[in-house]
Structure of DNA repair protein RecN:
Amino acid sequence: MLVELVVKNLGVIEDARIPMGPGLTALTGETGAGKTMVVEALNLLLGGRPDSDRVRVGASEAIVEGLFARGETEWVLRRILPASGRSRAYINGELATAAALADIGAELLEIHGQHAQQALLQPRTQRAALDEFASIDRTPLLRARRQAEEARTRLEQTGGDERSRMREIDLLRFQLEEIDRVAPVVGEELLLDQEQDLLSGALAHQQAAFIAVAALSEDGSANDLLARAMNKLADRSPFATVLARLRNVAAELEDCAAELRQLGESIEPNEERLDQVRSRRQLLVELRRKYGDSLSEVVAYADEARDRLEDLTAHDATLAAYEAELATAVAELQQVSDAIGKKRRAAAPELAAAVEAHLVGLALAGAKLEVRVTDTDELPGAGELVELRIAVNPGSAMGSLSKVASGGELSRVMLALRLVLSDAPPTMVFDEVDAGIGGEAALCVGRALAELGANSQVIVVTHLPQVAAFADVQVLVAKTQAQDSARTTAVVLDAEGRVIELSRMLSGSPDSATARDHALELLSSAQSERRADHP
C-alpha cells in the first residue's frame, strides 16, 4: 500500500505531501491543477522515463518520494529528476538503477491511464491475467523448459564439431603424455633443491667438515685445550661442578667430531647426479609454466584432462545418453505445454465473457472482448501468446487494445478485468477512467472502483462527482496563481470540504445551495450503496 507520496518541483507542483489510506482515494481538482503530475510522479517511482521538461521552472531538480508498506515490510522509493543530466533512483536510501526501482515498483503499484503507462498493454500482463483466471501455474512449464534447455546444452557441448573434438583429443593426449613422462610428485621440488645444494657444493662441504674435525680433535685442537683445562682443575674441590660440565662438553665435542668425519666422508662429488637433478628441476619448471603455478595444480590439471579425455573418447555412448535425456525432456515439456495450452484455450472465452459482463456497466455496453491464444515456436502447444482484443463499438472489427482503445477505455477494461480477477496488486492507479462518460455510467464506474477498493488500495484521478462520491478519501489538488508562477497543493478533504468540492464539480460553483444539496445526496447515496455491498 502507498502510505505517503511526496512531490517537489514537478510540473506545477512546488511541494506536496499526500497521505494515502486504504480503500478508494479520489484525486480531484480543476483541469490543469496538477492531478496528472501526481500520476506522473508515481510513474517515475515505477522507473518510468524521465523528462527534464517536467522540472518546475526555476528549480534545479524535481524529487518524488513514496513510502510503501506491505505487511511488516516498508520501502521508500525515491527518484530525483535534475533539470539537466541523468536522473537518480534510490531504494531505502541506497542508490539504485531505474530498472531496480521498476522491479520493486511493479510488485507494489499498477498504473492505468495513458497508453505509455498501461500495464494491460504488456503481453505478459495479459497472459498472467488469463493464467490467474484459469488457475494455471506456469512453474511446471518453466521447470520443464529449463530441463530441456540444459539437456540440449549438454548435448551440444558433447556433440560439437567432430574435427574440433578430435583436435581436443589430440591436444589432451599430448599434454597428458608430457605430464606422465615427467610424473611429477607433489613436494619433490623441495627435495631436489636440497639435493642440488648438496651436490653443487660437495667439495666445499667436504673440506669444511674435515677442517672442522681437525680443529676439534687434532693436536692443539679444542679437545687438547679442553683436556689441559680439565687437568688443571682435577682434584680441586671448588671447581668440581665446573669440571663435571667440562667433561660433558668434551664428550659432546668428541661426538661432534665423529659425526662431522662421518658426514664429510659420506659427501662425494657426483657431477652426473647433479646434472640429473638440474634436468629434473627444469622439467618441473616447464610443467608449471604450462599447467599450473605449483606441482599440485599440475597434478590437478592432469586429473581434469584425463576425465575430459575419457568423456571425449567415450563420445558415442555419452552422446546417445544425452540424446535420450533430451528426448525425454522435450517430451515432458511438450506434455506440460499441451496441458497448459488446453486450459488456456478453454478459459479464454470464459474470461472474455466475464470481462464483457462488467464492461456493460462501465460505458462500454456494446464492446466485445476476445482473448486470443496462440503458440510460439519455442513452446508449441502452450499458448504462450495471449492477446486481449476488443471491438469498442457494435459491428466494428476486433483489434489490439493499443490500437483500438482510448486511454479511458483501456482503464475501464483494466477495471473490469481486475473485478474479475482476485489477485490484484496492492495499489492501483486509474487515470482517465471516466473520460467521455457521465450520468449512470459514471455511477457504475464509481461503484466498480469502490468494489475494487474493498480489497486493494485504489487511487483514481477523476473529474466526475459521481465517481468521487464513492471514495473513502478525497484529495483536492488545487493550483494558486501568483504574478510570476503557479503553485499546486494537495489537501485531504474533511466531510465539509468534500461537500464543497463536489458542489464545484457538479455546478462549477462551490457556493451553490442546489449543488450542495445534490453533493450531499451523492455522498449519502454512494455511502449507502457501499454499506449495502459490504455490511
